[in-house]
Amino acid sequence: MSTLPNYLSMLRIALVVPIALLLWRQQVMFAFWLMLLAGFTDALDGFLARRYSWQTELGCMLDPLADKFLVAAMYLVFTLQDLIPTWLVVLILGRDVLILMAVGAYRGIFGDLTVNPSLLSKANTAVQILVVLLLMVSQMPIGELGSDLLQILQTYGFPVLSALCVTSGSHYLLVWGRHAWQRLGTEDGDRAKALLKKGDR
Fold first, then answer.
1. At residue 114, what are phi and psi to the nearest 5 degrees?
2. Can you say whether the dihedral through the CA atoms of 20, 24, 27, 28 is positive or negative?
3. In the chain, where are the structural domains located?
């Protein structure tokens, strides 16, 4: 039972392709219900992991990856459908790639890294999900309300999301950069410098 949260995360990853295909075929209602199912599995695996201490190293990787894959797929589909500007999806995906590169560099130099999502990062993820859900609703047969909702997202939602994206990404890099600078003055830093010198040869 302790691996149940991991299976829920894998189920969420498996839902990425059908949700993206349904959106691409403009079967928005079916995609919306699958998205709600994915959201339920996300909440459930988090609850189980905290309530029963069913936290594993694999789960710590799978849970955020599942969220990233799902959100990225939906944003790409909406961008191809001209519902989201290209610059916004480039900003969102670029932030994630930059953070992954920074994590890889940090791990490569120091060998360990504990990532605790900041409030800014949580807010960024929440707004990302809210925007795609509202976009899905705007594409449902709800008359003029759909076009009005899309206009509100374009006027307010996209700028807020872009600001959160830049702010949360910069915050991560600032915190990790400060930690790296501090560790360079310790025994870990001596090992890191030796590793860097070895790589230069």
1. -105, 120
2. positive
3. 1-71, 83-201
Written as one string, the DSSP assignment of 34-69 is HHHHHHHHHHHHHHHHHHS----HHHHHHHHHHHHH
Site of tokens 């969420």: 12
**pTM attached to this predicted model:** 0.80
The model's pLDDT over 71-81, given as tens digits with 9 standing for 90+, comes to 899 999 999 99
What are 103's two structure tokens? Answer: 């994590």
- Quote the tokens at residue 193: 């410098």
Q: What is the pLDDT of residues 122-154, one digit of tens each?
A: 888 889 988 998 999 999 988 889 999 999 999
Ramachandran region of residue 158, left (φ > 0), alpha (ψ -120 to 50) or beta?
Answer: alpha
Q: Which is nearest to 178 in space by CA: 102, 96, 91?
A: 102
DSSP 52: S
Given CA atoms 26, 30, 34, 39 in this order, what sign does their dihedral have? positive
Q: How far is CA 53 from CA 1, 3, 56, 60, 61, in A?
A: 11, 11, 9, 12, 16
> In this structure, which amino acid lies at residue 146?
G
Residues in the chain: 201
